[in-house]
């Protein structure tokens, strides 16, 4: 429901930078909650066909390889939460930066890490879609 409201609000808030920024921030958070819940239709809708994901480790994923890794993941994500998010608007593009804190269920414990990231969203196919994600730093806790 949040996604439908956020996505459809773009037409109403195109000239309202606050509303557009809030819609993009909502989608940004929605995507990571969808990763945790393995909501593949949400991910397919909001990842651009040419999605590019550069992990802090240097690993590269495409839309297909990232979604496949989510589906096959043995140690499930418990949470993926954002902090210090900044949305920078440019016509039909948005640059989003922030910190993503991830908790993972390992076989014998819960582990976690945080990443600083930069994401680029484009307004494509009548929806905000994630075009690129670059993790710029990662640390474990």
Account of the protein in words:
With 141 residues, the chain is an alpha+beta fold. It has a single domain (2-140), classed as Roll (Nuclear Transport Factor 2, Chain: A), CATH 3.10.450.50. Helices cover 35% and strands 48% of the residues. The chain contains four helices and six strands, in the order H-H-H-E-E-H-E-E-E-E. Strands 2-1-6-5-4-3 form a six-stranded mixed β-sheet. A hairpin with a 4-residue loop joins strand 4 (93-105) and strand 5. Helix 1 runs antiparallel to helix 2.
Summarize this, please?
The protein is α+β, with helices and mostly antiparallel strands and 141 residues long.
Low-confidence stretches: 1-14
What fraction, in percent, of the residue positions are helical?
Answer: 25-40%
- Nearest-integer average pLDDT: 91
Instruction: State the domain count.
Output: 1
CATH class designation = Alpha Beta
CATH topology term: Nuclear Transport Factor 2, Chain: A
State the secondary-structure class. Answer: alpha+beta
Gyration radius from CA atoms, angstroms: 15 Å
- What overall geometry do the principal axes of the alpha carbons give? globular
Instruction: Report the CATH architecture.
Output: Roll
- How much strand? over 45%
> Whole-Å distance between the termini?
33 Å
Mind describing the biggest β-sheet? 6 strands, mixed
N-to-C series of helices and strands: HHHEEHEEEE
Major sheet strand order = 2-1-6-5-4-3
Number of helices: 4
- How many strands? 6
């Amino acid at each position: 429901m949040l996604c439908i409201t956020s996505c459809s609000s773009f037409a109403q808030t195109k000239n309202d930078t606050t509303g557009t920024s809030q819609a993009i921030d909502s989608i940004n958070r929605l995507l990571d909650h969808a990763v945790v819940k393995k909501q593949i239709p949400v991910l397919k809708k909001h990842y651009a066909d040419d999605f590019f994901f550069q992990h802090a480790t240097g690993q590269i994923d495409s839309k297909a390889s990232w979604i496949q890794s989510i589906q096959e993941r043995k140690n499930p994500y418990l949470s993926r939460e954002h902090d210090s998010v900044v949305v920078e608007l440019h016509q039909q593009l948005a640059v989003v930066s922030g910190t993503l804190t991830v908790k993972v269920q390992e076989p014998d414990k819960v582990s976690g890490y945080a990443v600083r990231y930069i994401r680029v969203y484009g307004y494509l196919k009548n929806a905000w879609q994630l075009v690129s994600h670059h993790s710029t730093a990662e640390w474990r806790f």
